[in-house]
Amino acid sequence: MALAKHLAAGRWLGAYSQFTLMKGPGYPIFLAVNSWLGLPLGLSHALFQCGAIGIFFWVVARLTGMPTLALCGFIITLWAPAPYLDRVTRDAIYPGETLLVLGALCYTFLGTPAKKRRLIWALASGLLAGWLSLTREEGVWIAPGVAIIVIFGTWVAWRGHTFLRDAMVPLVVVLLAFTATKMGFYYLNWIAYGTATSVETTHAPFKDTLAALESVDAGKRIPYVPVSRQARFAIYAVSPAFKSLKGYFDPVDGMTPWQFGCTFYPGTCGDIAGGWFLWALRDATANAGHYSSPADAAAFYRRLTSEVTQACQDRRLKCSETLFTLLPHISSTQWQKLPSSLLKGIKEITFVQSPGIAPGPSTGEPYDIASDAQFLNYPLQTSDQKIAHIYRIAGWYRSPKHDWVTGRLTQVNGQTKIISIQRMNSPDLVQAFKDPSAIRERFDINFVCAVSCTFKFDSASNKSISLDLDHLTGKPQQHLLGPATIYIDSITDRTEGDASLAIQTEASGIIRETSLRIFSIFMPWLSGISLIAMILATAITTHMRRISTIQVVSLAVWALITSRLLLLGLIDISSFPAMLNTYLAPAYVLICVVSVLSFGSLFASLQMRSRKKVNQSG
């Protein structure tokens, strides 16, 4: 949220800290644009998802000539329960981004558009893929699906003697657009922070440090603990850089504060579990004062990596490399849990196991919730506490010196904030006072107030007037500030009443529950039968040595679902609980998509076989 507010204000990602480049700016960009558009965020989430689904199935209709099938897919996917849309998280737009990338690539490499249009779609594919990579960092999971589409499109172009026009040039455009997106991010970071860097959790200095620390073997390895307490003390002895973090990781007066994994993995209690170590390392580094700039943080991580690596080479530490940089060591016991983890994910996305769809309450301080709600254009909220007030004051100010006023908002906790008041056109005042200089003397301000607050108007002549907002709502009033006059047309409180909120929440809950019941009945059967249909279609086309476009798209989507589940399964058995609806978000959408496409694939395969038999008999 903080990054989005900085972007909306034109300050790039704000002042640098360990949080600035912790994750990509893909979702903050979406939030900033939403703030500019003035749409409630919940509506923007829904419109984006709806638009992405619509564009994808439009592409399917154009590629396959099956508009009825595409319409069925659109309706099923659109009405599928979306438990990931409740919160202000990047997972709310990730499924839509995935569909847009997939649809654009399909039209680029599998469609038959004119040359110029193909290049436009190729450009869109690259830019969308770049945006996707800036939203979540684990974009490698889309590689299998992308590879299927690109390889098949290239093969068709090669056979049709249009390899350069229909495959090579579009592929180069896609790669250039994707690279331009990433380089643009690097460049803006260089301007703002003096270093051309990317998301730090995927950047070499931090990744190398994490890999070096996780490679240390000291005592028996504990499942779900990448760098145990015993390993940390062994590293303290050989690395001055890591020893500088000891007070944070292992304070003398108690255990490490990072005990979040204890709830999920009792064997990790007293230590730092799985995926939490990554964030603990960043916080420890910041606590030691090494996040003044990206260059400062990178230099510290390089020094730490060098010291640990050298100790491993000198055999002062016993070390063994991990399979992947961000994946800790996995024991045989953990590997045995992979099938059950995958099964859990499959049950989730096919609604065999109903996901939780009841929206949880907004959490945080009332003022912060209200401030965020204002930035997000007041989306529907659920709350277990009183919602802060959202006030609007409209009126005008006239001064013989033609000076202007400022506002001062004081919260119940004593926190004070200066409110900038912009001059607005006031042709009515010019006419009323017969004074052409009164052309810009109106104001219309909005602000949030945590339960109770005081608002003051301050003039340039050091005069001020306090307003009791609770008792003056809706009443026009006039005040003198020295020789100046301030007239308030109205004070309105835009806070949603509890009754209205309850009605909207209840109506939303009824629709969600009904949708979930319906999908829980037919989706397990539909997805299972669609898999059988896909297997039959593959058997037919393998025998015929021919494949339809819709089958290629279906195979790509099945590959994406498989790779997403495998990725989350590996994380689930090694780092932290990952088979959650937020991380499964793209798979929820893709399983609906492929359930329809698979039947289309079987139909297309049967049609091809029928035509082949007719040709042979003729």
List the helices and strands and how they pair.
Blueprint: H1 2-8, H2 26-37, H3 41-64, H4 67-79, H5 94-110, H6 115-135, H7 143-159, H8 163-193, H9 204-214, E1 216-217, H10 229-236, H11 240-243, H12 246-249, H13 276-287, H14 294-313, E2 318-319, H15 332-335, H16 338-349, H17 366-375, E3 389-398, E4 406-411, E5 416-419, H18 427-433, E6 442-449, E7 453-458, E8 464-467, H19 469-472, E9 477-481, E10 484-493, H20 498-544, H21 549-574, H22 585-617
Helix pairs in contact: 1-2, 3-4, 3-5, 4-22, 5-6, 5-7, 5-22, 6-8, 7-8, 7-21, 9-14, 16-21, 20-22, 21-22
Please describe the structure with a list of short key phrases separated by commas or semicolons.
618 residues; 4-stranded antiparallel beta sheet; 10 strands; 56% helix; globular; 3 domains; alpha+beta; Immunoglobulin-like
How would you characterize the overall build of this protein?
This protein is an alpha+beta fold and 618 residues long. Helix 5 runs antiparallel to helix 6 and helix 6 runs parallel beside helix 8. The mean pLDDT is 88. A hairpin with a 5-residue loop joins strand 7 and strand 8. It contains 22 helices and 10 strands. Helices cover 56% and strands 9% of the residues. It folds into 3 domains: 297 residues, no CATH class; 105 residues, no CATH class; 106 residues, Sandwich (Immunoglobulin-like), CATH 2.60.40.
